[in-house]
Design goal:
The chain has one domain (4-154). Helix content is 53%, strand content 17%. The protein has six helices and four strands, in the order E-H-H-H-E-E-E-H-H-H. A four-stranded mixed sheet has the order 1-2-3-4. Helix 1 (14-22) runs antiparallel to helix 3 and helix 3 (46-79) packs across helix 5. The chain is elongated.
Length: 155
């Protein structure tokens, strides 16, 4: 069973801003009708809008989707000891400015949700996490499952 990645449209990283700012004009996206109306209504510069509103948002969502899938796969490995009744439902950045929200479900015992710090998830997805961070995150995930009674159900 797969899991859902729910990105948020903010915040943009420095890398996202740089990519959008330095993108060639040929890579700027076309605007839909609503975006064209907004540009006209507020007398905005169309290239700046295409670059710093539309393209930047695209880059943010791509990065967060990439991070979310990497993080989700890490969680799948971490929850494996909990058994076949436990699955990862979603990882989400939406509404969680300080990190990623994790939603894990147990077929018989319900759902547990918790947050993981943004810095740790970013380091993990970029291959920069220390062994201490990686093992600490794995331990925290299992502790959340244990507290929810998901691990005892696997025994």
């Amino acid at each position: 069973m797969g899991f859902q990645v729910i990105p948020a449209s903010v915040p943009a990283s420095r890398e996202d801003w740089s990519r959008a700012r330095d993108a060639p004009a040929s890579e700027l996206p076309k605007l839909n009708e609503a975006q064209e109306r907004e540009v006209q209504e507020f007398s905005l510069d169309i290239d700046e809008y295409r670059r710093l509103r539309v393209l930047l948002r695209k880059y943010v969502l791509q990065r967060q989707n990439r991070q979310g899938h990497f993080f989700g796969n890490f969680i799948l490995e971490a929850i494996r000891p909990a058994g076949k009744y436990v699955s990862l439902a979603a990882v989400s950045r939406k509404g969680t400015p300080q990190g990623w929200k994790v939603t894990i479900q147990h077929e018989q015992r319900g759902i547990v949700e918790f947050q993981c710090p943004l810095e740790v998830v970013e380091a993990l997805s970029e291959g920069l996490a220390t062994t201490e961070q990686t093992e600490g995150l794995r331990s925290d995930i299992l502790a959340e499952l244990d507290q929810a009674g998901f691990l005892e159900a696997a025994s």
